[in-house]
Design brief:
The protein has about 1000 residues and is an alpha+beta fold. The chain has 31 helices and 30 strands. It starts with a helix and ends in a 5-residue tail after the last helix.
């Protein structure tokens, strides 16, 4: 018994299995892991290497360069960018796109960092790698309701502890942690009068702030531990600590210093929500969970924790679960509408009985694909759901062809069983070829590598899975349903589509050369028109949130940055389109969106999340900040931007300048900025080479210092102790140890004129003024030095005006920069969208030959003819004929998503050509000549071809009109391309066949060519 016979003999089993698979898909749909966007793999990591006391040039030479030398040998790294700040080096690392074992790759990075540390100078800290850059703070909370930052911190800690105990929470982190320290603010005048210096005080307090073991005793067979209370237990205890003076007397510490618990100094970060002081908590979910359920659970945990921290209150800053639910609900509706539109189109075009039969296949195939996708570990997010919507029209193609063939045979008198079985026998191989060629078009997308490919990989996975299932169902389920439901059509039907098909065939047969010339002219015209289509790597997100970067000159104090941010907050609070403002001073915003990049401690930097009343109001707020707010704050650099889709890109326009001399880089950056400012579409133009920061260098007279027994270390400790504070121990009264430091009462606010009076202790216990052993030299030096792959670099960046594309600005900028004379040793290249889109396109196109090889293999195996294969391949350019006009009419840019639409089009157009050519070959085997075979083929296949186009277009309509900015470019590219390519395919394929396969046409063309050569005048 054949497989086909077994299927018909066991039709109840086959249909039951199909129904159960479909119902399983429904169950999976309701219970699957849900996210808004795909989780990108761990391509990015951040390294922080501290070197306390060192300035940026020292950090560059002694810490950064050893790390770069070690990382250069790690093959898995694509590039690394590094910045040497005062006292710290920060490196951003991106792995190569072909990496799949990310844990092994980051282990290699750790080994390189460990090797580099061997070359670090004494005092440099261990470099710390954080490879969890893709972790998203799905919920960001703010604890507010008090002006006391320490009270807010305690509330945030309590909330964090409650959240960490939840099984769905991977990590909860304090945001803008003010820290704690016990500050012993020494009264300098009283200390001098009592003959007490900082070193003596630190020595006495340090001896009383240690956890010591008292040993143990053996008693009655048990060991009793002896525990002397040798550490501080409270601030009050520290205040009452007796301090022994040089004369032997003792005084309480409170008489010579003010002892108080305070936030860490200097402050590292601050946070406000709508102008009110806050301490945040970022909540990171575990992987592979339902993010919507996660949000519900976190809200319950917040409600449980709220009474314990009253009167403090918890405010939600960003809440990803709600946005995920909204996005998925919108796409669910698109999928439902797509199914309904496709079903309605089929019923209207094919009649109720035939249309319902084919339409019933849509949910069967779709839900079966969902079941298999979920069982394979698939996640439900906007990419996967949109891929199902994209597949709707394509998955009915096989069912249409089979059902049409069965009906055609029934109308000619065959029995239902015979008609169904003969239809499968006739179409199994052609449909396999057509399906394989469509799958071949998606192979490059499937095997492409890199962050962009990983972001969109679900599209080929879903579509290829759906098409494969649709082929199997077309051979097993559709014939069974046809056998059960279809009946012969007794009334002869005159089809308008059939008449149109015969007319198109007649035109192609009679005027093949003219048809091909016109088609060629259309393609040339489209290529010329393509220059008018703007290019955009990925569109902006449709969120009602924008980011505002506030940057002062590097070296600015966090208090100055905070004052500027307060002015920005005040201005935004008065704008009617602004709903909420959350500010993060001294750091970047938490990773509340999947491609927001983390910015570590930066006192001169702040980032604001501005939530508008609606996404449509974003442009008004952007314009207000740029036109009114930025000019009012000339001391700050304000960069405002919408959230972007796709892998992270710092700015759409980036020009990198590499060289070794900072002065040359600065000259080049200024020249590039002048060119950029002449471009009308460029906004927020800036470069990242700061003017430097003031430094006071203390040059020590070693001879004089030596006479007092003072070393350079003593001088350094004296200066640091008076400004930042000398550590003397820890207080263990709370959950975490709290450092105890001694400093002057003024601390960082000490006047420069008072520096020379700083007491430096001598070996005899006396003190001498700093001015006696050192003199002060003012110095201006870089506060930050940036590298890329080991070379010094300056990046000039710009945002774009609304409605502008990077392609238009970049082309104009390239022309302007072509005449730029760069200083010697400075090289220029482009980053931003140009680099991102170029890499993504190259990664995709580099895999294109594999898809083409599969396509050629299938076509040659099916037709065993180079000419027939060439006819089908020549239809591929037809897929692009309508893309450009469609994007122009829809006012959509051409980017990576549009490119995916073109690739999908290739599979459909080739599929149509194969289906058409199969009938031509079948008719010729039956004895028809080429004109008759072409006419019959177009007349017979025009209906399924047009129906495939109509259903695919209908299925794409919800995406074309989606509120999301991600899908309209892809949907419009496919819709317009399908409409144009279908029309051209029905005419161009017959014309090509006539020219290449008809011996009389070939002879006529050859004769015409010889005639032209005879008429051509001789050059002699």
């Amino acid at each position: 018994m054949t497989v086909l016979g077994w299927i018909f003999n066991n039709r109840r089993l086959v249909l039951t299995v199909a129904a159960l698979l479909s119902l399983s898909g429904v169950a999976m749909w309701l219970t699957m892991v849900r996210q808004e966007d795909p989780r990108l793999p761990a391509y990015w990591g951040q390294v922080v290497a501290p070197y306390p006391g060192a300035d940026a040039p020292l950090v560059e030479r002694l810490v950064l360069e050893p790390i770069e030398d070690a990382l250069a040998e790690v093959h898995e790294i694509r590039y690394f960018e590094a910045t040497a700040f005062d006292e710290m080096a920060v490196l951003e690392i991106e792995l190569r796109g072909d990496i799949r074992d990310f844990n092994a790759a980051w282990d290699e990075v750790r080994e390189a960092l460990a090797q580099a540390r061997l070359d670090f100078p004494e005092g440099a800290g261990r470099p710390v790698l954080d490879e969890n850059q893709v972790d998203q703070d799905a919920i960001v909370l703010a604890v507010c309701g008090s002006a006391d930052s320490l009270e807010l911190l305690q509330g945030a800690r309590h909330l964090k502890d409650r959240l960490l105990g939840h099984p769905l929470v991977k990590r909860a982190e304090i945001i803008a942690d003010p820290g704690e320290q016990v500050t012993i603010a020494l009264n300098d005048d009283v200390a001098r009068r009592l003959g007490l210096n900082t070193q003596q005080l630190a020595s006495q307090l340090g001896a009383r702030s240690r956890i010591l073991s008292g040993g143990s005793l053996q008693m009655e067979g048990k060991s009793i531990r002896l525990r002397p209370l040798s550490e501080f237990a409270s601030v009050a205890e520290i205040q009452q600590t007796p301090i022994r003076l040089s004369g032997g007397q003792s005084v309480p510490l409170s008489e010579v210093a003010r002892v108080h618990l305070s936030p860490r100094e200097p402050a590292r970060a601050r946070m406000r929500i709508d102008g009110a002081m806050a301490v945040g908590v970022g909540v990171v979910p575990r992987e592979a969970i339902n993010i919507v359920r996660f949000g519900d659970e976190v809200r319950r945990a917040i409600a449980d924790a709220a009474p314990a921290i009253e009167p403090l209150r918890v405010q939600v800053v960003t809440y990803q679960p709600a946005r995920t639910q909204t996005r998925l609900s919108e796409l669910n509706r698109s999928l439902l509408f797509g199914v309904m539109i496709v079903a309605g189109t089929l019923i209207m075009a094919m009649g109720i009985r035939l249309g319902l039969l084919v339409a019933s296949v849509v949910p069967l195939v779709t839900m079966t694909a969902v079941a298999l996708y979920a069982w394979g570990g698939g996640v439900l997010h906007q990419i996967s759901i949109a891929a199902l919507v994209l597949a709707l029209g394509m998955l009915v193609d096989n069912a249409i062809v089979v059902a049409e063939n069965v009906q055609w045979r029934l109308d000619r008198g065959q029995s239902p069983r015979a008609a169904a079985m003969d239809a499968v026998k006739e179409l199994a191989v052609p449909l396999a070829g057509a399906t394989l060629t469509t799958l071949a078009a998606f192979i490059p997308m499937l095997i492409s590598q890199g962050p962009t490919a990983d972001f969109t990989r679900t599209i080929p996975v879903i579509i290829m899975l759906t098409l494969a299932i649709s082929y199997l169902y077309a051979l097993a389920v559709t014939p069974l349903l046809s056998h059960m439901t279809l009946r012969p059509s007794h009334a002869p039907r005159r089809s308008l589509l059939t008449d149109l098909g015969r007319g198109a065939a007649a035109l192609a047969i009679k005027r093949p050369v003219a048809v091909l010339v016109v088609a060629g002219m259309v393609l040339v015209g489209v290529m010329a028109l393509s220059r008018q289509v703007p290019r955009q790597f990925f569109p902006s997100a449709d969120r009602n949130q924008i980011l505002v970067d506030v940057k002062l000159v590097e070296g600015a104090h966090i208090d100055a940055t905070d004052a500027t941010v307060l002015a920005v907050e005040k201005a935004l609070a008065g704008h009617t389109a602004v709903h909420r403002v959350a500010s993060f001073v001294g750091r970047g915003a938490p990773a509340f969106y999947y491609n927001v990049q983390r910015v570590p401690f930066s006192p001169h930097f702040a980032q604001l999340i501005v939530e508008t009343v609606h996404a449509d109001a974003n442009d008004a707020v952007l314009h207000f900040i740029r036109s009114a707010l930025a000019p009012a704050l000339p001391e700050a650099e304000l960069v405002v931007r919408k959230l972007e889709q796709g892998p992270p890109v710092d700015a759409p326009i980036e020009i990198r300048l590499q060289g070794q001399h900072l002065e040359h880089l600065e000259q080049a950056a200024v020249a590039v900025i002048q060119r950029l400012k002449s471009l009308p579409a460029a906004r927020d133009i800036r470069h990242d080479l700061g003017p430097g920061a003031p430094t006071l260098r203390f040059r020590i007279d070693d001879a004089v210092a030596g006479r007092y027994g003072i070393s350079r270390v003593d001088v350094g400790h004296a200066i640091y102790g008076r400004t930042r504070g000398t550590p003397v121990g820890e207080l263990y009264s709370r959950e975490d140890p709290i450092p105890v430091v001694i400093r002057s009462a003024a601390g960082e606010r000490m006047a420069i004129s008072d520096l020379e009076a700083i007491d430096v202790p001598t070996t005899t216990g006396q003190v001498v003024p700093l001015a006696q052993v050192a003199h002060i030299e003012p110095l201006w030096q870089p506060a930050a030095i940036r590298h890329r792959n080991g070379q010094r670099v300056v990046t000039v960046s710009a945002q774009l005006a609304e409605g502008s594309s990077f392609s238009g600005v970049l082309a104009d900028l390239e022309r302007r920069l072509a005449t730029l004379r760069l200083p010697q040793g400075v090289a220029l290249d482009f980053g931003g969208d140009a680099e991102g889109s170029g890499e993504a396109n190259r990664a995709l196109l580099s895999r294109m030959p594999i898809g083409l090889l599969v396509l050629l293999g299938v076509l040659l195996a099916e037709f065993n003819s180079f000419r027939r294969t060439a006819i089908i391949l020549m239809t591929i350019p037809l897929a692009t004929a309508g893309v450009v006009p469609g994007l122009l009419v829809g006012q959509q840019p051409f980017g990576f998503m549009s490119l995916l639409g073109v690739i999908a089009l290739i599979g459909i157009v080739v599929n149509n050509a194969i289906v058409l050519l199969e009938v031509v070959e079948s008719r010729r085997r039956q004895g028809a000549d080429i004109p008759q075979a072409l006419t019959d083929a177009v007349a017979r296949r025009i209906r399924p071809i047009v129906l495939t186009t109509a259903t695919t277009v209908a299925g794409l309509l919800p995406l074309a009109f989606s509120a999301s900015t991600l899908w309209p470019p892809l949907a419009l590219a496919m819709i317009s391309g399908l409409l144009a390519s279908t029309l051209l395919t029905l005419v161009v394929v017959p014309a090509l066949y006539r020219v290449l396969m008809d011996s009389r046409a070939i002879s006529w063309l050859a004769g015409a060519g010889r005639s032209r050569r005879k008429l051509k005048p001789s050059r002699s």
